[in-house]
Amino acid sequence: MKILIYGLNYAPELTGVGKYTAEMAALLAGGGHEVRVVCAPPYYPEWQVADGYSPWRFHREMRDGVTVWRAPLWVPSRPSGVKRMVHLASFAMASLPLLAWQALWRPDAVVLIAPTLMCAPGALTLARIANASAWLHIQDYEVDAAFDLGLLKNSRAARFARWIESALLRRFDAVSSISRQMTARAQTKGVDPSRIVSLPNWVDASTIFPLTRESEYRRLLHIPDGQKVVLYSGNMGAKQGIETLADAAEALAGRADVTFVFCGSGAAKRSLLERCSALTNCIFIPLQPAERLNELLNLADIHVLPQRCDAADLVMPSKLTGMFASGRAVVAMARRDTGLFDEVSPRGVVVPPDDVCSLAEAISALANDPERRAALGSAGRDYAERALSPQASIRTFEERLAVLVRAAGGARRAKAVATHSGAGSSTAAVAARRSEAATVEKAAPD
Fold first, then answer.
1. Cα–Cα dist 105/267, whole Å
2. C-alpha torsion sign, points 98, 100, 104, 107
3. How many whole angstroms separate alpha carbon 317 and alpha carbon 19?
4. Residues 20-60 pLDDT 10s
5. At the topology level of CATH, where does 216-387 sit?
6. What does the mean pLDDT of the chain come to?
7. Beta partners for 230?
8. Which of 317, 340, 130, 337 is nearest to 233 (CA)?
9. 2-199: CATH class
10. Cα(171)–Cα(167) distance, rounded to whole angstroms?
């Protein structure tokens, strides 16, 4: 199949949606499909375009057997609600010429990755022009998140945005998302259940695995033997509720055997640094190279995953799969009956969102109990090996996409036959009329 993947984020971004989109494209290309990508230059989570890329120029490159086309976009240094909207709109508009160019390639399928849904009109138009199947894969419900998290607050605008969102979702041939609750939300937005597909995020358990020795990061960060490391690694943004970790670190400042390590970047990093500036039990490091990810994740004795209460089932943290695969204990903040709760509770510790006391108590209890840490880590690792392989999700995607493409091909052939038959009927009618006219002319008197 010829598959065009259209999305804002892509490799070499190390975290979030870009990581999974790039892996999806590479896996599909490795499976024999012809894959192209239209995306933006890498900028996330630093909110700064990476060295070697330009925010103002189009760019083409080959990456892991995939042809990648990059469109310009505006990246705000301090993203706010309105600035984020302009940022997303800039990519949606700037990428339209690349979509028009791909129409000449005539893909069999156009796969849009959300965020951003602002690109949906372009994706749907290209799919219709090329007679291709249109697939929407939702990593984040960005409209709900923007209003529920307070990034945008106008109630009339919220109603209008959700109406537009529902209208767009219903026009795709398939809509997928990464958890049971997130796929169920698609149905509440009007998507026919027969068009909804579950595609969980994955982890390559052969590249993320428990080390039989201590992580090199202990030496690099001068962390003493016996010290319990609480690790947060990833984006530091509004949806993460990262501020609760600063409060937990302050609550546990009296424990000399517990150190918090924060690895990452994002819009909330500056405020987190300020809140932790007086604490001696906190270490900050930038995002690490992808080839060092396993070493980093094995630094943790306890992985910690904060989440705001109002972000429940709007997003599923992408970092969770690597936490499980590393074989280390996980503490997450989530409400009952949410996707994150269901993922973590059988193989980790879950505390209520925004409850700093419960978070600090859970961390402290695990720091005191190495046997329970080992048991939870083993359960998470087993789950990663059993249920989170990339091959399972990609196989589901390929099979469902092939059905859509065959159906679209059948419709194209039927249309062509109908057009040909119509043309043939018209020709026959013209010939009949001409024959009739000739007969009349011969029969007419001189």
1. 38
2. positive
3. 12
4. 999 999 999 999 999 999 999 999 988 999 999 999 999 99
5. Rossmann fold (3.40.50)
6. 89
7. 260, 302
8. 317
9. alpha beta
10. 7
